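Hey,
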Amino acid sequence: MRKMKRLTGIIAAGAMIFALAGCGGKKGDFDVTTLGNDLDTKIMYQDTLAAMDLDTAGMFLNLSEVNVTKAAVYEGSGGTAEEIVVLECASEDDAKKAEQVLKDRVSEQIESFTDYVPEELTKLNAAVIKVSGKYAVLSVSDTPDEAKKIIDQYM
């Protein structure tokens, strides 16, 4: 009886270790609004960022070819390049399309700000774009390392 309890305990401990080891890979689903809010509130911005609805964001980001199910988008006044885009897409393929859209957005912003406010190019050249599973994220700020840490908590 005593050996059986001990064996059961060892098996349970082994199962727990095995389950925990499986958690080290890809993170699961998350709420894009929560990540967007964390990026907005835990990073200092020069500009005041305002939340934008998906329809409006879809027009200026050119998301017509991407099936986005939920988004958190924050834009500045236009005086800076600072912005946050967190997208939950219908599929991993859509997230890959969204990645290209976000890269195109940064390129367009670089072109726009080159003559307008060249100081913003530092932020744009360090823009954080990350895609994982069905999620795609863009963060443009003065603190890209901090943005990466926040995003990595989710993705």
